[in-house]
Specification:
alpha+beta, Alpha-Beta Plaits, 244 residues
């Protein structure tokens, strides 16, 4: 039996072409949807990364500010420490323990200290005082050249540097001979100047009579002790302590 196809070939070709075009369009749509989804995913990730970057940058900025503040505090701390050390050196050029050891080392036999009072104050005038020690007499000419640096304007600019350390010394001695010997020892000291006797009076406790004396002195302005000088004073103080 012969099959007869009544559908025109042009119609069949057009139908196949339409199906092919429809498939291409469908594939193109799928590809475009996939590309759009990928683009949206990339955009979302990019926004998330930008947000994280902003957070990281904010934290880094805060960390840098904290580091700068810490460095500034460290710099201020170093300046404050340097200023404190400089001020301490200017105000107290000789440690009090060394000064007390020097006063104790020069005590004659039988003499004892009762009280030591240190007072720091501005000088009343800029005239150099009369040197009372052999050391100061030898340095008188050298110190005379430093008088110009102690003008009122210099004192106003650096008041700590020109502070004078005055001392009130009280003690007891068997007789005035020991008091005079002690004053002579202090006058020969390289630390002290203007040693003077204020009072020496007889004092009696039970059957013992002794002299109670008061001295004034001033720490020499230009004194600078080396480590060797300090060690010598300490060693001498230890020897004196052992001898009692």
């Amino acid at each position: 039996m012969i099959n007869i196809n009544f559908v025109p070939e042009d119609y069949l070709q057009n139908s196949e072409s339409q199906r092919t075009n429809l498939m291409y369009l469908l594939l193109l749509a799928i590809v475009m949807i996939a590309l759009g989804a990928s683009f949206m995913t990339i955009k979302i990730r990019q926004k998330a990364l930008i947000a994280k970057e902003k957070i990281v940058n904010t934290k880094m900025t805060q960390a840098q500010e904290s580091i700068k503040k810490f460095e500034a505090l460290q710099a201020k701390r170093k300046i404050m420490l340097k200023t404190a050390l400089t001020t301490a050196e200017l105000i107290e050029p000789v440690p009090r323990s060394i000064l007390l050891a020097s006063l104790t080392n020069n005590l004659p036999t039988g003499v004892s200290l009762l009280r030591l009072n240190l007072i720091q104050k501005q000088p009343k005038n800029t005239n150099s005082a009369v040197a009372t020690s052999k050391y100061n007499q030898e340095q008188a000419k050298k110190n005379a050249s430093q008088e110009d640096s102690q003008s009122p304007s210099a004192i106003a600019q650096n008041p700590e540097k020109f502070l004078e350390t005055h001392m009130d010394i009280e003690g007891i001695a068997p007789s005035d001979l020991q008091v005079a010997a002690y004053i002579e020892q202090l006058c020969d000291s390289s630390l002290l100047d203007n040693v003077a006797l204020v009072e020496s009076k007889e004092h009696k406790i039970e059957d013992t009579t002794f002299r109670q004396f008061k001295l004034t002195a001033m720490l020499r302005k230009t004194v600078h002790l080396s480590d060797q000088d300090i060690e010598k004073i300490r060693a001498k103080g230890q020897n004196v302590a052992r001898s009692f």
